[in-house]
Amino acid sequence: MLEVYEVTVNGWPTTMQLTAADAAQRALTGEDTVAHRTAVREWLAAEARAIEARAETKQRTPSNKSRGAANKGGA
Q: Is the overall model pTM greater than 0.70, yes or no?
């Protein structure tokens, strides 16, 4: 059965359909398959979105909320 691998040929990223034997000759593993790399990219993107969402909900509040313009206690 052929698997699709993401490899670099002459400095250019490309995809190749290889059998398990051909992939082993080129020292390619399951982590080099397009399906695996796509899953990793999607997972990293989801993590980045989660971090952004946490940062947005954790907005900084002023240390003394009661000091508005009306009660600053000027001279």
A: no
